[in-house]
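RECORD TYPE: inverse folding
INPUT: structure tokens
STRUCTURE:
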């Protein structure tokens, strides 16, 4: 897996299936009355070199703190979730975040459990996703 760029841009796009994009993001809004249990099989996480993973997490968190990380004015609230998914020739890796106290914080991504109390609100392509 390549290193995530520190200059990526989270862009909204029109697509029927965001997961067909090479690099994508999904924003989940907390649904107050939702308590929907979804059962299924989770794909095991892709192995990523711990040094590269640490760099990626640093780049992503720093970029999410910048006002122009999204191409739209996103108005996250406490409890909202965000996943960024990156694809390379050797596999896919997902990074999860939760909005709390005015900033994004890392949160383990579990595609099924996140839908128990959240709805997909927005999604799109990650431009300039990987460092060159």
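DESIGNED SEQUENCE:
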């Amino acid at each position: 897996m390549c290193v995530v760029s520190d200059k990526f841009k989270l862009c909204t796009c029109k697509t029927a299936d965001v997961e067909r994009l090479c690099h994508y993001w999904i924003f989940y809004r907390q649904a107050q009355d939702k308590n929907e249990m979804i059962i299924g099989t989770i794909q095991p996480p892709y192995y990523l070199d711990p040094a590269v993973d640490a760099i990626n997490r640093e780049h992503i968190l720093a970029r999410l703190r910048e006002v122009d990380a999204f191409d739209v004015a996103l108005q996250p609230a406490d409890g909202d979730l965000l996943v960024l998914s990156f694809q390379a020739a050797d596999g896919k890796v997902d990074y999860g975040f939760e909005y709390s106290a005015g900033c994004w914080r890392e949160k383990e991504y579990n595609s099924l459990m996140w839908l128990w109390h959240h709805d997909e609100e927005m999604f799109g392509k990650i431009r300039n996703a990987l460092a060159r």
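NOTES: DSSP finds two helices and six strands in the chain.
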